[in-house]
Amino acid sequence: MLLWHGRIAAIAALTLGVVALPARSHANCTSDDPTGALRAAARMDVVANCDCTGASNHGAYVKCSANRLKNNNPNLPKSCRGTVQKCAAKSTCGKPGFIICCKKNSAGKATCAPKKDCGHCVAPNGGSMCCSQNTSCCCKDTTPSCSGTGNLCACASPSGAFLDAIGF
User: Fold this and answer.
1) Contact 153, 109 (CB under 8 A)
2) Cα 115 from Cα 121, distance rounded (Å)
3) 54 assigned to some structural domain
4) Does residue 120 lie in a domain region?
5) pLDDT per residue over 115-163, tens digit each?
6) Which helix (H) or strand (E) holds 111?
7) Partners of 111 in the beta sheet?
8) Of 1, 14, 35, 113, which residue is 20 to 30 A from 152 by alpha carbon distance?
9) How many domains are there within the chain?
């Protein structure tokens, strides 16, 4: 009987302990780096230290990017690593001949992905598409959009602080 009451007391203590714990706040990259300056600096570090055109394959480039973000960017909040890593993952680095395909559906939602060539970039029904020689889908923190001048993707960077011309 004493053993049974001890178990009940232990279960009650554990339950109260779990209930009494404060709610965990989730990391948020937008609030952890509100200006985007840390993300831009981390991207520039990857561009400077991971060889986009010389990567033996896409996986090697993405791995280099992950290592740079983890080991060489101590100021980059952990909540922003995935956002910056996505730039490397959605790049043409290590994929010779690939292009960036930008699409906009009929509702105006823009998407971007590397494609083998412009022939593989097909506009959605009622939407539009464009191809770019940019190396990544990252334009600051927005998706590139089709410009009004020709068949090129343009980065819409409000501050102009981070454009796609030098890597991503």
Assistant:
1) no
2) 7
3) yes
4) yes
5) 999 999 999 999 888 888 888 888 655 556 665 544 445 554 333 333 3
6) strand 110-115
7) 103
8) 35
9) 1
